[in-house]
């Protein structure tokens, strides 16, 4: 997993809960690098899981809620840090339908060794979008937070229905069905 995910998680914790909380979870997570991450480095996703578990233990918040919150934060940060990814997207559906074919291609240019989930989409009807999240890491809660962050960014009234699917080999799969309230 790319270091930018780790550095943004730490930024979220520090900005919302303070430096003491960040130090506490780094200590509790017992990380191999003592929490020293660079945005361009590549790290084991299990380290992020350990940080989230430590934060859950420290705050009493459940893990899915924390990961979802982080996804919302991450989308907002990506919109500021990588504005070029948003240039041709003017709606939630515009943006989300470009993830696999455009955005992940650009991410791979920046981070050639990035291990990205797949998010193919289809448009079953006007005002609807279906995304199928698939990844060996199983961060569907993060994907859900990113989707909700996208909806907040574009300020559109969209309802999301999430269906967790059976694993396919080592792949965790989740279906997100988005319906626009204006359709």
Automatic annotation (TrEMBL):
SUPFAM superfamilies: Ligand-binding domain in the NO signalling and Golgi transport. Gene3D superfamilies: H-NOX domain (3.90.1520.10). Residues 2-161 form the Heme NO-binding domain. This is Haem-NO-binding. One of its GO terms (molecular function) is heme binding. It comes from Pseudoduganella namucuonensis. Signal peptide: none annotated.
